[in-house]
Structures are given as C-alpha cells and as structure tokens.
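Reopening this ticket.

The earlier resolution said the output was attached, but the attachment link was broken on my side. Pasting everything inline this time so it's all in one place.
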Amino acid sequence: MSKKHYFPLLLFALLLFACQAAENTHPAVVKTNPPNIILYVEDALLMQNVPGDPTAVFNQRTGRFVRQLPAGRLSANGQTYLAANPQQGHTLIEQYQPHQADPVISFKANDKADVSAISANGQWAVLTINSTSEFKNLAKPVTVIQLLDLETGELSEAIPLTGSFEVEGIDNLGHSVYLIEHLPEMGNGNHYRVRLFDARDYLLDPNPIRDKRFLDEVMAGYAWGTATDPQGRWLTTLYVNTLSDQAFIHALNLKDGWALCLALPSDVEHLDHLRYYALTLSPDGNVVLAVNPLLGTVTEINLDDPSQQKTTSFDPVITPLTDTFQENMPPEWLLSTAISPDSQTLFFAFDQQVWRYERQTKQVSGPFAADKSIAALAVSPSNTN
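Inline output:
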C-alpha cells in the first residue's frame, strides 16, 4: 500500500511535567494532519521533516500548522534551514530562518546539487553534485562535492572523490568533512568505512577513521537513524550489523576526528526488531540514549567514558495497538523521542503509547495511551510542557 495510506495522524504531544506524580495521567494531545515528522523545537515553532518531503512548521503552544517549507535540512542548533531548488542548468540553495516563510538568501550552484550536510552551527554546508558530465562514464565511480560558506556565500570548486561516497557531516569550522565510503566489492555490498576530507588542504586522508579499540577499519551494516548534538561535537548513527546480528551506535566526534563503536542490546531471535531503536543525545552532548520499545530497553552511554553504560528494562511492546504497524514500515513512522532541556527526562512513543524514563532513578513509567498513532514528541524550552 502507499505511504499516505499507512501514515498516521501527527499528534503533537504536550507532556505535562506537572502531572508526573499521577501514574495514570495521560499526556494531552493536539491533533493535526500533516505528512511529516518533527525534528526540532525553536521557541513557539515546531520544525518537522522527512528527507525528500516538505517540511511543516507548527505553533508549539497551539499545535496548529503555520506554514510549509520545501524539502531540506536543518542545522543541529535549529537556526539554519537549507533547501535545494532545482532550476534550468543550476540549483538555488535557499537559506531559511525557522520563523520565516521566505528564504533570506539564495546561493547559486552549477548543475544539479543536493544539500548533504550542514554544520551544527549553521555556517557550513556540503553539497553533492549529481550531474557533472566530465566525471560520467568513468571506470570507477566518482563522487563530487562542494563546500558552501553560508556567512560569506563563497562556494568552493568542485571536489571529485574517486569512489562511492556519502557525506556524513562537517565540523563547525568547515575544516573537516566526514564521509562514508561504500565498498560494494566486499561481501554483500553493505561494507563501509569512515573517511576524512581535509577541506583546508583539499586532501582525502588515506587512513580511515575507526574505533581504536578494535582492529577492523572496515565495518558492515545498514544505517537506520542519526542524532547530532546542537554544539556539533557528536554525530551518532544507529547501524544494524548483518554479519554479527548486532545493533550498534557509530559515534563520530566531529570536533577531533575519532570514532566509537558502541554495542546495543540485541535479540538474535527477532532481528527485525533491531531497527526500532531511536537515538537521543543529551542537551550537553555527553550522553547518548538508545530506546527500543520492541526489546523493552533504554540504554545510556557516556560518550566521554563508554564503559559507563547502563541498560534499563521495561515491558516490551508485544503487539501494536493499531493496524498502522507493518514489519516493512520505516521505524520513524511509529517511533519518536524527546528529552527535557534539563536532560533528566526522556519521553518516547511507539504507535499509540508514550513512556517516560527518568535518568536519575533509571526508571521507566507508562505506557500512557493516546487515541491516535503518535508521529512526534516535543518538550518546551521552559521544561514545563
């Protein structure tokens, strides 16, 4: 069936901290009917986006739809939104502010370009060029990128990289571009390694980035979701390793250029459940939380000291509440999280159920039931709603 047929109503869940003492308290909900998933809360506005789909903006206090923006990417600090607008023979890279409906400025890129990454501070963008004719029909694939300085409007020359690369991220200084190099010649095509491109010297580091605790520089798995902290220190990605039937987090330190591979609780009898993890970074970026309602686990990992890992168990979801659940549905359609600004409370939702995890006591309460499938959660900046 079509995506529209399955996609549930978006419920903007106002989670009332004042009601925490009542075990049977249900979070209040405001119902709307947009097509996408929330990414970020900025003052009274709610930004939401599914890559490739339009982005909707909501008023956080009323839950009402405000406007729609073209498909694009939002910086981790929530201040810069970029969208690629294809034109005849070139692409306009349009920059928006979350509170404004029209672009504040546009940059012209030759050929067909996509916005592949934005630095967390919103100053730098990496574009992938898709129609550079001089690099077509070569014996090996070539990936072409460009760097855009959003403060000066300066666009770098086209940078050809021999191989099949995917842009992972860029640091706040615009010095380091992190790439996933896909290695289709190995195994069943899901092998990859992480590479660093030095934008100051225009050099691709020959040494892959890897977790120094392990010998292998080549990893295997499929990416299912990412989370970046607003300061731009950590980029975390959920992977499912198809060789070891293991879910893990690849944590990339964007500032200093090193990585961690962090194993998560995995159930080899239900491998399809591994992709129903959701990652959330604490506001200070020091801790990553991974929740999986189908496994019934919340895992906290201190990124400065990965040995400080704690998993809390709760009753897993056995059967979904509605017929919106399908095994082949993208997990992000049904699974969402939100952490309080003081970083002490994590809310997470799956289909029509919401749970609350208290980091201090390591306890999970819920589920609280809603009457529609919940596509997104948000906590107000004041820590009260």
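Reporter confirms the inline version is readable. The CA atoms of residues 73 and 240 lie 24 Å apart. Confidence is low (pLDDT under 50) at residues 1-44, 321-327.
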